[in-house]
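Feature request, filed as a ticket because there's no other form

It would be nice if the structure record came with a short human-readable summary line next to the tokens. Right now we just get the raw output. Example of a typical job, pasted below so the devs can see what we mean:
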Amino acid sequence: MSEKKESVLAGFKAFLMRGNVVDLAVAVVIGAAFTNIVNSVVKGIISPIVGAVGTKSLEGYKSCLKAPCGVGADGQPTGVEILWGSVLNATLTFVITAAVVYFLMVLPMAKYLARQEARRKAREGAQEIVEITELEVLKDIRDTLVAQRAGGGGVGGQAGSRDGF
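Raw output as currently delivered:
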């Protein structure tokens, strides 16, 4: 039983020590801080621009599904309200967050990685050309040696004559 417990703990420790878990934790912390920035942009800039058409806040946009909507004399809400302004606000926040992450993080990183890959392929291509050239030279040498042995000719006269005449 203790071996199983140790193996579970060892597996959990290995899971925590993987780089992906640490990277994910950092991403969550940065994402939470970044969300505050985006929410501030939406509340401070986007919402007033949209509010210039109607109410000052997106939260004020709502529709009444079951009339009459409001607050009764006892302080309890009456009717059924659909708060579509809140949904619009959340949607704008999401779209702005996704756009900022894409244009400021994903796109530049993709371009950087593409450049790195192109450089790596260029280095491999140059190395491959050198290897192909060496291979061609070695094949020519082999063919020349085979021709000399088989045909008795080639460079330096007749190779098959032993007495020199």
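Something like this underneath would help us a lot:
The two ends are 92 Å apart (CA to CA).
Confidence is low (pLDDT under 50) at residues 157-165.
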